[in-house]
Amino acid sequence: MGRSAFITNTMPPAGRIIRHMAAVAAAAAWVLTAPAQAQDDRTTPIAVPAQPNAITLGTGPLPGSTVPESWHSQYGSVFARNVTVATLTPFLPDPAEATGAAVIVAPGGGFRSLSMSNEGWDVAQALADKGVAAFVLKYRLVQTPRDMAAFEQSMREMFAGAARPTRPAPAEMAAGIAPQIADANAAFALVRRRATEWRVDADRIGMIGFSAGAMLTMATMLAGPEAKPAFIANIYGPLSPVAVPADAPPLFVALAADDPLFGDTGFGLVEGWRAAGRPVEFHLYEQGGHGFGMYSKETTSTGWFEAFTRWIGMRGFLKPRG
Description:
The chain has eight helices and twelve strands. The chain has helices at residues 15-31, 117-129, 148-160, 170-176, 178-193, 212-222, 268-275, 304-314; strands at 44-46, 55-56, 70-74, 77-81, 87-91, 102-106, 113-115, 133-138, 205-210, 232-235, 251-256, 280-285.
């Protein structure tokens, strides 16, 4: 299955918690996701792409939204913003190669945009090529100005004020992104409901998130038993300490030491997993910045995907059960 579908998504003003996170993550996702090769860094509006394979999730339209979904290109990649209706796009492996494992993929973008290709479709297609069913979650977003120039200005202003904001506690953060957590839970429920059709083992569904998507991944797991991911991956998301559940799933973490957002904020999340006796694998790359995703770069951070798939393979997810 190639790059598939999408639909409309957006999100209401989520208050100061989202603004805390967006002030760092969104601005960085906007200006720091370029690959090593020179790419056009201009933010250019593009037509909303056809999304024939996207499945609308049942979480409804974003309350209070007034700005329609729009898309733009930057760094040779494509981004969605003002998503008001959440969707899930399947990338299914060849049935002869399907392992039964699945992954919900949550792109980043500071809850103000979504890096749909670099942190969404490209990741999902690469997983499908490994025999793992992958599902790109286009979750609802904080609304931004309709006009591109106004959007760019709002991001510049946010970035200018992003120096060392106070980061909210995990519980406070989860309260601020309730719509997105609902979207993630709905994604897990949909995959389990159609597990037979999609050749997925209902208890072998993990989640991987990038930047804000990593925040969403962690918050979804911590919010309660609804999602029950079999494993989770935090790719250049915050590593703030959390209260680790006794049954916390295996955790994979990848971060660049020169990440301008989270590279010098400690590794409390990893240490907490270890202290709780839960499985964790942590890759700290010397260089890579923020937002490297599936871009091909000369830094060793480009190897994160191979490391991740070797890790899920070590845990038995690259082979059919039994």
